[in-house]
Each structure stands twice: as C-alpha cells, then as structure tokens.
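Hi everyone, sorry if this is the wrong subforum. Our group has a chain we'd like a structural model of before ordering constructs, and none of us has done structure prediction before. Sequence below.
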Amino acid sequence: MTTRAAGPFEVKLAPLPTAWATDQSPLARMSIDKKFTGDLEAASQGEMLSAGTAVKGSAGYVAIEKVTGTLHGREGSFILQHNATMNRGAPSLSIAVVPDSGTGALTGIAGTMQIIIENKQHSYTFDYSLDGAP
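Answer:
Right subforum, don't worry. Here is the predicted structure as tokens:
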C-alpha cells in the first residue's frame, strides 16, 4: 500500500572542493542541508555533483542525502538518491529511496519523491510504502 506525504522544506547548498580545481571545469560539488516539515519532520544532509554545458539551460546533477526524523509519526532514517538533467530548459528529475536504507520504524521503506518549486518556495510530495516495516 502506498502512502503520500507532503509539505514544505528549506534547503541550503554550500560549495565544496572538486577533484578538478580549474576555472574552466564545468563540474561543481555542493553540500546539501535540508529541513523538511509537514508529514515528514526531518533533517537531511548530503552531497551533490553537477555539470554544466556550453548550451544555456542544459546541465545535470546527481546527489545522495540521508534523511533522519519522523514520517507520519514513524521515527528513523533513509537515503534518497537524485538523478536529474536539464535539456535546454526542460527538466527531468528522479528521486528514489535507496533499497534497504531504512532504519528504525522506517525499515523496509521504498518510494519516490517529487520536488516542487513555486515562487521560490520548495515543497515535496513523497509516495512511499513500508513493506517489512516493524
């Protein structure tokens, strides 16, 4: 059975050094620090790698973040994996729970998250199941 969680979140990104320290590198590395509210009361930390191109509006990023808190009252943690591209302004984003990453009352969690950005405000919808959860 799938359940939907939703709410706003705040995100802070901070630059980190990359393995290629040249001014011409299209690669960037950032730390991720999020605070989720709503159905998911949690904090997350992670890292993002991104790449830009010479074509305006084309780029990509991957990220991993560990989310720790409560989801509909269940306490634990899980890991989210991001994979995104921007093809000349057309976005494609996939965020999924890493299999078997759930802990505590979130053991057995699986699901996907969507990020919504409207008027510079971030929110999420998270469709998940807790098969095998205690």
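For your construct planning: The mean pLDDT is 93. The chain has one domain: 3-15+26-129.
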